[in-house]
Write a structure and sequence with these properties.
Length: 253
């Protein structure tokens, strides 16, 4: 009897290991290697870290190389990993390919993982846009703002100088961690929207054009506790061509 029970236990254990090794994430996962790994692999899922669209040192001296490396490769990657971990808890569901669609429709996410998706999915969506709105200071300049976008800035927010002053003020007042966003509201008017943590403007029904990340990991290595200096410096590396094009596309519907 004892031998039979031991054999049964060995059989069940082997089956469990095989099931884990061959498991797949619904619609997105890939088959694991046949061999059993020494340690469990990190959860995979529908979302991947996008590559940084320029070198780590491309934004210097305004944003330093080490900050960009840690911000992108460590912090952003952590949001992606934890988002996939959260979604893996609902294996019967299929998730949208575009993370923007996910955070835009949080009410459709099961309540059991909704907070995690709000935080981690928001972090992934926010940073994926953030990298695109920055570029080397060598090719930067306010003169590159599209005339239609410049006109909207003047009519809705009082112009470029007013925009910078207001975002600096709101960024300085934002308690703890978060973002200050330039968005298009439901009436397609430009407005500023400060949000805590990694909340996305998309969840609030707004379309983000540009956001200043005021989490300490975005600036502390270079600017230490002086957030205001970081906010002043970031205007030297804003990609106005990209933001203007994003605005134009949104205005076309």
């Amino acid at each position: 009897m004892l031998t039979t029970r031991r054999q049964a236990l060995k059989t069940l254990t082997a089956a469990a290991i095989a099931s884990t090794t061959l498991g797949r994430f619904p619609a997105f996962g890939q088959a694991a290697p046949a061999a059993v790994a020494a340690a469990p692999a990190a959860p995979t899922g529908p979302y991947k870290l996008p590559p940084l669209p320029y070198a780590y040192d491309a934004l210097e001296p305004h944003i330093d190389k080490e900050t960009m490396h840690l911000h992108h490769d460590k912090h952003h990657q952590a949001y992606v990993t934890k988002l996939n971990e959260a979604l893996a808890k609902e294996p019967s569901l299929t998730w949208p390919i575009n993370v923007d669609d996910l955070v835009k429709n949080l009410d459709a996410v099961p309540e059991s993982i909704r907070t995690a998706v709000r935080n981690q999915g928001g972090g992934h969506a926010n940073h994926s846009l953030f990298w695109k709105t920055l570029r080397s200071p060598v090719i930067n300049g306010d003169t590159m703002v599209d005339p239609a976008f410049a006109k909207a800035l003047t009519e809705d927010l009082g112009g470029m100088d007013k925009l910078k002053a207001e975002m600096a003020e709101q960024g300085g007042k934002l308690f703890g961690s978060g973002w200050v966003w330039l968005v298009l509201d439901g009436g397609k008017k430009l407005t500023l929207l400060p949000l805590p943590n990694q909340d996305s403007p998309l969840t609030e029904g707004h379309y983000p054009l540009f956001g200043i990340d005021v989490w300490e990991h975005a600036y502390y290595l270079k600017y230490h506790n002086v957030r205001a200096d970081y906010i002043t410096a970031i205007w030297n590396v804003v990609n106005w061509d990209f933001i203007s094009a994003r605005y134009a596309a949104a205005m076309k519907g």
